[in-house]
Amino acid sequence: MHYANPLTLNLLWLLIPLMVFFAWALKRRRQKTSLFIEERLLPEIVEGWDNFKADKRSYILIVLVVAFSILAMARPQWGFEWRKIKRQGLDIFVVVDVSKSMLTADVKPNRLQRTKLAVQDLIKELKGDRIGLIAFAGDAFLVCPLTEDYSGFMLSLDDLGVDTVPRGGTNIARAIEVAIKSYEDTPAKYKVVIVITDGENLEGDPIAVAKQAKKKGIKVYCIGVGTKEGDLIQIPDGRGGMEFLKDNKGNFVKSRLNEKLLERIALITGGVYVKSSGANFGLDFIYKKELSKLEKRDIESRLEKRYHERFQIPLAIALILLVVDTCLRRL
Q1: What global pTM score does this model have?
Q2: In a shared domain, residues 92 and 58
Q3: What number of other Cβ atoms are within 10 A of residue 97's Cβ?
C-alpha cells in the first residue's frame, strides 16, 4: 500500500494537541462540577450518572473521525492494473525576434520581455505537444530543438536576449527557413510555426519563404508585438543605465509595428495573424482557437501502472463514527 498524497499524513500530528485539549476540557469540566457538589455524590443525586463517560466516548470518537479523515485525504492506494497511455500533440516551433527593436517599451516592460512572459503562459496550455525555440535577428539559430521537456524549454527561453544572435538586423525569412529545416520526418499537418516579431524586416524575402512553407504544408502563425505609433529604442549604456539607440547619422531610431507583412505571411500559409494588445498577447487565442482544433498525431504510446484508489474506506469509517457519535449524544 502507498499514498498518493503522503505529505498529508503529517496532519496526523494535529491529533496530539487535539487529545491534549480534550483531556484539559474534561478536567476543567470536572473542576467546575466539583465547585457545586462532590463527584462521589453525583450518582446518588443524578439518575443515570456515568462519571463523564459520555464525554470521554465522544472525545475519542471525534479524534478517530479526524484521524480517518486525514487518512482519506492522503489517498491510500493498493492493487493496480496496467493501462495503455497514448500521448498526442503537435510539433510547435516558437520563433522569437531578439533584435534591438524588441527592446522598445511601447509594450510594457518591453516587447521582448512581454513576449517571454506570454510564451511562459503558452507552456501551461500545452498537453502533449512538442515545442522548440528559434531566435532571430540578422540571422537565426535553433535555441531549443523540439522537446517534451517543458522545463528545459523554459530555461532556454529565460536566456533569450538581444545578444543571443550576434548579427544585428531583422531577417524573418531566415527565421522561417531555420524552422522548416529543423523539423524532423513529421507529416506536414502536425507542423506549426509561430513567429513573434514587430515585423520590421530589413533583409531577405519572407514572402518567398512563406510560399515555400505553404508548399510543404506548414502553417505559419504570426503575432505582431508593438504599436503602429512605435517608440524610441532603449538599450543598455554599459554603465548600468539605459540610452536611446541612434543610427550612423546620430538620429534616434524609432521602431513601429509592421502588420501588413505579418498578415501576408499568415495568409499565404493558411495561418492566422494576431496583433498583441495589452493583457491579450495573442498566443492563448492562437492555441485555443486554432492549434487545439488541429489534428494531433500519436507521439508516444506506453504502459502505465494505475493504482486503485482506496480512500473510500477510511472516509466511510470516518462518516460512520460521526453518525455513531451524533446518535449517542441524543440518547
Answers
A1: 0.63
A2: no
A3: 28
pLDDT band at 86 (very low <50, low <70, confident <90, very high): low
Residues 163 and 90 in one domain: yes
In-domain check, residue 306: no
Average pLDDT over residues 42-66: 70
Domain containing 189 — which CATH number? 3.40.50.410
Cell of 124: 501551461
Nearest by Cα to 235 from 219, 249, 252? 252
Q: Domain check: are 280 and 321 in the same one?
A: no
Burial class (CB in 10 A: 0-12, 13-18, 19+), 322: middle
- Average pLDDT on 231-243 reads 68
Q: E strands, the chain, where?
A: 2-3, 76-89, 91-97, 130-136, 140-147, 191-197, 219-224, 231-232, 234-236, 242-244, 254-255, 273-275, 297-309
The pLDDT score that the predictor gives to residue 154 is 93
Q: Does residue 271 come out as left (phi exceeding 0), alpha (psi in the -120 to 50 range) or beta? A: beta
Helix 53-73 to helix 15-34 angle (10° resolution) is 170
Q: Are 240 and 287 members of one domain?
A: yes
Q: Has residue 48 got a pLDDT over 70?
A: no
Contacts of 330 (CB under 8 A, 6+ apart): none
Cell 505582431 identifies what position?
224
To 10 degrees, what angle do helices 206-215 and 259-269 make? 20
In which domain, by residue range, is 34 found?
Answer: 2-75+311-330
Q: Say how many domains are in the chain.
A: 2
Distances (CA, A) of 316 to 4, 115, 142: 18, 50, 56
Q: Tell me if 157 sits within 8 A of 133, measured CB to CB.
A: yes
CA-based nearest residue to 191, from 270, 97, 282, 265: 270
Summarize the confidence of residues 37-45 as an average pLDDT: 57
